Amino acid sequence: MIGKSKIFCGQKTWLEGPAVEQFKRVMTFPGIVQGAAFPDLHPGRGVPVGAAFLAENIIYPALIGNDIGCGMTLFATKVNERKFKKDKLFRRLGSDPEKALKAAAGRILEAMTQTVDDPENMLGTLGHGNHFAEFLAVDKVIDREKCEALNINKNDVLLLIHAGSRCYGEMLWRAVAAIHGDKGLAVDSPDGESYLKDHAALIEWASFNRRLIGSALGEMTACELTEILNATHNSITPFGKNCFIHRKGASNVESGTPVIVAGSRGTCSYLVSPCGDGEENIYSVAHGAGRKWNRQSTRDRVRAKYDDIQQLLKTKAGSAVICPDKDLLYEEAPEAYKDVSTVIADLQSFNLANVLAELRPLVNIKP
Fold first, then answer.
1. Candidates 131, 199, 246, 287; catalytic one
2. Are residues 336 and 293 in contact, defined by beta-carbon separation less than 8 angstroms?
3. Tens digits of residue pLDDT in 133-174
4. Is 246 marked active-site?
5. What mean pLDDT is predicted for residues 165-186?
6. How far does Cα 353 stand from its chain's mean position?
7. Which residues contact 348 (CB under 8 A, 6 or more apart)?
8. Rounded to an integer, what is the distance from CA 261 to the centroid of its chain?
9. How far apart are CA 356 and CA 328, in angstroms?
10. Which secondary-structure segment (H or E) carries 26?
11. Positive or negative CA dihedral for 231, 234, 235, 240?
C-alpha cells in the first residue's frame, strides 16, 4: 500500500523527471505513510533532495544519506551595511580561506570549556558541495513586526552558515549502508536505536560547528554575533506515536519558528515564517532554490559561458565570491540553481510560508 503524497509545486516550477521518480519510489518503501515534495526538489543519490517523508515503526537512514545534521544557522552582526568592511574580511581569509577559518576557529576552541568530539579534526571547516558562509544585507523588510521581534532591521548585515556533519555523517552512513543498504531499520531494534543515538550526536556536532564557524567569522570582521535561528534540514525526528519524519533538504518547522530559504550565491535568500496547519506538508518547507543542473553539466555550461574565471568572483547581485577551488566555482554558479523567487511563490501559494525579509548577498565564502 502506498501512502498519501503531495508535490507542492506550481505550473511554472520546473521539476526534473528523475527527481519525481525518486520521490514516487520512496513512497513505495514499507512503512512510509506520507510524503511531501517541495519546489526545490531535485535528484539525489537514489533519493530526492527537497522532500519530507513520514514513516511508521521504521526509520530509513538512506533517506538522509551522508550529510546528517546539515542545516543553516543565521546570526545578526549588529553592523549596518554601510559600515561592513569587506576588505578586512578578504585580508583575514587570504589565499587559503579554509586554513584561515580553521585557525580562527581553533583559537576560539582553546578558550571554550565545552566542545564536541572531533577525532578527525573537522571543527571549523565548512566542507565543499553546496555548503557556504555568506554575509547578507537585509534588503527588504516585509513583516516589520516579526522582524523587529528578531532584532532584524533594514540594511542590517547578517551572517548565514550552511554546513553539516562533515566526514562523520559519511562514516555513519557508510557503516549502516554496508550492512543494510537502503533498507529500513526497526526503531526498537539494536541497529535502529544505535543509529538514532549516533544521528542525534551528529545533529549536535553540526550545529556546534556552524556556531563555531560563525564565531570565527565574527572575530575576523570584528562583528558581535547574536544567533537568530538554527534550522536543520537533513534529519530524522520522532513525531507522534511510533512515527518519524525524514527530511532530506527540507527545513523542520514543527516549532513554528522562522527559517531561511537560501538562494544561489548570486540571488537573494528569504527569511520566512511557516504557516498553515503543517499536516499536509509534514511540518516541513523548502530549504533553498534547489539545483537545476548537475555538477558535471554545470561545469561544462559555465566554462563555455565565461571566458575569464574572474567573472565568477562577482555576481549580478553585486556580491563578492571567495572560492579558490575552480571546479567548485563553476559547479556552484548561480545558473546551476532554480529561480528562488519561484520557489518562494510556490510556498506562498500553497500557504506553507510567509516572507518576513529579503536578504541580499554581500560576500559568499566557499573554501
1. 287
2. yes
3. 999 999 999 999 999 999 999 999 999 999 999 999 999 999
4. no
5. 97
6. 17
7. 354, 355
8. 8
9. 31
10. helix 17-26
11. positive
